[in-house]
Automatic annotation (TrEMBL):
Superkingdom of this protein's organism: Eukaryota
Lineage: Eukaryota, Metazoa, Chordata, Tunicata, Appendicularia
Cellular component per GO, a single term: endoplasmic reticulum
Stretches assigned to the Thioredoxin domain: 74-203
Organism: Oikopleura dioica (Tunicate)
GO biological process per UniProt: protein folding
Protein's UniProt name: Thioredoxin domain-containing protein
GO molecular function annotations of the record: protein disulfide isomerase activity
Length: 425
C-alpha cells in the first residue's frame, strides 16, 4: 500500500490540492492513536480543519484513495451481522458504553461476556453461555448475565471503552461484584465451566483436580495438606509462620509415585510434632499462567517459606525422613542437594557377564550383539545404596540369563567424566 499512498500524495501536490497525506509509525504513538480506536495497521484516519472526521474504510489502491481525497464522502459499509445477538435471550442485556456502569452498579453480581462479532470461538461458545444463564436462573443464583461487543467496527469509542477491562482476546468473561471488576474466567468455554463460574466465581470456572483426591489423605484418614490455587497461594504463605509448598504437574511420575506418598506421611507426622509447619500443594497443570509468573521450570518443586518470605528451594532427598529432618530444623544446608559419592566396582560385584563401555566403545560393541540391555550408573547420594543394589541385581540377572539368552548386558559409568555416559541404546 505504501507505494500507492506516495503516488496519491505526489499527485495531490502536483494538482495544487489543499489536501495532504501524512504517515505516522503507530507502534511508537499508540497512546495518541487510542482515542481513534486504532487496533491494527494500516489504518487511515481522515481529518478536516484539524478535527477527526472518520476512519477510511474504502479501497487501498491509488485510484480509490485519490477519489476519496477529491470528494471525501465515505460509502456506508454494509451492516455487520452480529451472530452473538441473534439468539440472545431477552433477559440478557447487550451493554454499551452508556449503559454499562449503571447495570453493574444496580446489580450485586454480574457476569459480562466481552466478544467480537467476527470471533469464531465467541459464536460457538455463546449457546453454552446462554444455557448457563438459564440454569443459573433456575437455581436462583443471584447473578446477572450480560454481553458486550468489544470490537464494533463502526464505533471506536466502544472499542476504547472495552480496553479498560483488559480485553486481550475473545471471548473474555469477567465477574463484577458490587461494581468491582473482580474475577476473570479462566477455563474451558463450556456449559459446566460457565455454571461453575456463576456459582463460585473465585475459582474462575476451573475444577482443581487435587480436591477430593484420597491419595492426599494421610494414613490417619485426615487431610493435613492444603490445596492451593493461584488466588490462595500468597495468602497461604502470609498466614503461616513456616510453610512448604509442593508443586506438581499432570504426567509427572516422580511427583505422584515417589514424592506424594512421602509427603502425605510427612504431613501427618508434622501435625503431631510441629503443627505450626504447614504443607500445601498446587497443581501447575491447572494454573499455567501462574507457573510462568513464578518461573516454575521443573516438577516436582518444593519451596520453603518462613514468616511470609521465601527462604529456600528444598532440593535434598525427597523421602519422608529427609524432609522431616529439614522441617524440624530448617537450614540452608538441609535444603541443598546432597553431596555425591563415587563408588568403585570391585570384582566381587561383577558376574563377569557385563560388558563395560563408554561413549567411544559402545557403538562398536553393540553392533556385535543381537539384543542389548544397557545400565547407565553413577555415584549415588550420601547414605543411599540404591545404585549398588541396582548394579548387584543387574549383575545377577546377567549371570542367570547368560547360558539361555542372546541378550547381552552393558554397563556405562556416567560418573567418570563428560565423555562417559553419552551412549544411547
Amino acid at each position: 500500500m505504501k507505494p500507492d499512498f506516495i503516488r496519491v500524495s505526489d499527485e495531490l501536490a502536483a494538482s495544487k490540492s489543499s489536501a495532504r497525506l501524512a504517515a505516522i509509525e503507530g507502534d511508537k504513538f499508540r497512546n495518541w492513536l487510542e482515542p481513534f480506536g486504532v487496533t491494527g495497521f494500516p489504518t487511515l484516519l481522515y481529518f478536516e480543519k484539524g478535527e477527526y472526521k472518520l476512519t477510511y474504510s474504502g479501497g487501498r489502491t491509488k485510484a480509490a484513495i485519490l477519489k476519496f481525497m477529491k470528494n471525501p464522502v465515505q460509502e456506508k459499509p454494509k451492516k455487520q451481522v452480529d451472530e452473538i445477538l441473534e439468539s440472545l435471550p431477552e433477559s440478557i442485556p447487550k451493554l454499551t458504553k452508556e449503559t454499562f456502569d449503571d447495570f453493574v452498579e444496580e446489580n450485586a453480581a454480574v457476569i459480562v461476556y466481552f466478544y467480537a462479532p467476527w470471533c469464531g470461538v465467541c459464536k460457538s461458545a455463546k449457546t453454552q453461555f446462554y444455557e448457563a444463564y438459564e440454569m443459573a436462573d433456575e437455581e436462583d443464583l443471584s447473578v446477572k448475565f450480560a454481553v458486550f461487543n468489544a470490537d464494533p467496527k463502526d464505533d471506536p469509542a466502544e472499542i476504547l471503552f472495552a480496553k479498560e477491562f483488559e480485553i486481550k482476546n475473545y471471548p473474555t468473561i469477567w465477574f463484577f461484584e458490587e461494581a468491582e471488576q473482580k474475577y476473570k474466567f479462566n477455563a474451558q468455554n463450556d456449559l459446566d465451566s460457565f455454571l461453575r463460574f456463576a456459582r463460585e466465581p473465585e475459582k474462575r470456572g476451573r475444577v482443581n483436580t487435587l480436591e477430593g483426591d484420597p491419595a492426599w489423605l494421610s494414613p490417619d484418614g485426615q487431610m493435613h495438606i492444603e490445596i492451593l490455587s493461584d488466588e490462595s497461594y500468597d495468602e497461604f504463605i502470609a498466614e503461616n509462620d513456616e510453610a512448604m509448598i509442593f508443586w506438581v504437574a499432570e504426567g509427572c511420575i516422580r511427583c505422584f509415585e515417589i514424592v506424594q506418598p512421602e509427603f502425605v506421611i510427612l504431613a501427618q507426622t508434622l501435625a503431631e510434632l510441629k503443627p505450626t509447619f504447614k504443607l500445601a500443594i498446587i497443581d501447575g497443570s491447572e494454573f499455567k499462567d501462574f507457573v510462568t509468573e513464578k518461573k516454575v521450570d521443573l516438577f516436582p518443586r518444593l519451596e520453603y517459606f518462613k514468616r511470609g518470605r521465601f527462604e529456600y528451594f528444598y532440593e535434598n532427598q525427597q523421602n519422608g525422613q529427609a524432609m522431616l529432618n529439614f522441617a524440624l530444623q530448617p537450614t540452608k544446608e538441609g535444603a541443598e542437594k546432597p553431596k555425591r559419592y563415587i563408588w568403585e566396582l570391585d570384582s566381587s560385584r561383577d558376574s563377569g557377564n557385563i560388558i563395560h563401555v563408554n561413549k567411544f566403545t559402545f557403538p562398536e560393541e553393540v553392533e556385535k550383539v543381537k539384543f542389548g540391555f544397557l545400565m547407565l550408573h553413577a555415584g549415588g547420594f550420601d547414605g543411599a545404596g540404591s545404585m549398588k543394589n541396582a548394579y548387584d541385581a543387574f549383575s545377577e540377572a546377567s549371570k542367570i540369563l547368560a547360558p539361555i539368552s542372546e541378550l547381552k548386558f552393558f554397563a556405562c559409568d556416567c560418573g567418570r567424566g563428560k565423555d562417559w555416559g553419552k551412549a544411547r541404546v
